UniProtKB/TrEMBL annotation:
Subunit structure, as described in the record: Contains catalytic and regulatory chains.
Domain Aspartate carbamoyltransferase regulatory subunit C-terminal positions: 102-150
Family per record: Belongs to the PyrI family.
Keyword set, alphabetical order: Metal-binding, Pyrimidine biosynthesis, Zinc
Positions annotated to bind Zn(2+): C109, C114, C138, C141
Binding note for cofactor: Binds 1 zinc ion per subunit.
Cofactor: Zn(2+)
Stored SUPFAM superfamilies: Aspartate carbamoyltransferase, Regulatory-chain, C-terminal domain, Aspartate carbamoyltransferase, Regulatory-chain, N-terminal domain
Organism: Ferrimonas pelagia
Domain Aspartate carbamoyltransferase regulatory subunit N-terminal: start-end pairs: 7-97
Keyword Zinc: yes
Presence of keyword Transcription: no
Protein's name in the database: Aspartate carbamoyltransferase regulatory chain
Role description: Involved in allosteric regulation of aspartate carbamoyltransferase.
């Protein structure tokens, strides 16, 4: 078990641990991906000391196994996070994240004239990674926005 957070947040028996979330992004990850909308126990650690990143946030969700598709969506907010699968107290799978091609239903379009604000449609953005910058292009208004400007909206 990690030296980073031993005893900082209790170990879980079964479920998922999202580790190495940038400090101050944990709450946003929780909220945008609705990870707290469950009856299962969720524990979070904020501003935990981390040997690799100074401070980190961490989210543990018991009895829920985060699949690769959702894990990769998390990469938009926490590119260096790892998603651990825990079974009977053991880490049985450790996913490192790669950017998804699309992100649906998570972010709102920053363009106030976009039809997604007036029609009951799911938002959908194509993820465009170019020269270290990540842009999200709205499927409906076709405008491209920086990852930061989309992620910071709510
Ligand atoms: N963890 C947990 N419950 C367990 C086992 C592990 O909550 N029963 C958590 C650990 O606290 C850690 C994460 O799952 O936050 C990953 O565990 P582990 O791979 O053992 O830690 P590290 O080796 O430090 O992981 P990494 O190399 O990804 O930093
Ligand atoms: Zn739009």
């Amino acid at each position: 078990m990690t030296k980073d957070n031993k005893l900082q947040v209790e170990a879980i028996k079964n479920g998922s641990v999202i580790d190495h979330i940038p400090a101050h992004s944990g709450i946003k990850v929780l909220r945008l991906f609705q990870l707290h909308q469950t009856q299962n126990r969720v524990t979070i650690g904020l501003n935990l000391p981390s040997s690799v990143q100074g401070l980190k946030d961490l989210i543990k969700i018991e009895n829920v196994f985060i699949d690769e598709e959702l894990a990769n969506q998390l990469a938009l907010l926490a590119p260096n996070a790892t998603v651990n699968r825990i079974e009977d107290y053991e880490v049985t799978k450790k996913l490192t994240l790669s950017l998804p091609q699309k992100v649906n239903r998570v972010f709102q379009c920053p363009n106030s004239n976009c039809i997604t604000h007036s029609e009951p449609v799911d938002t959908s953005f194509a993820v465009i990674a170019k020269n270290d910058s990540i842009k999200l292009k709205c499927k409906y208004c076709e405008k491209a926005f920086s990852r930061e400007s989309v992620a910071e909206r709510r």
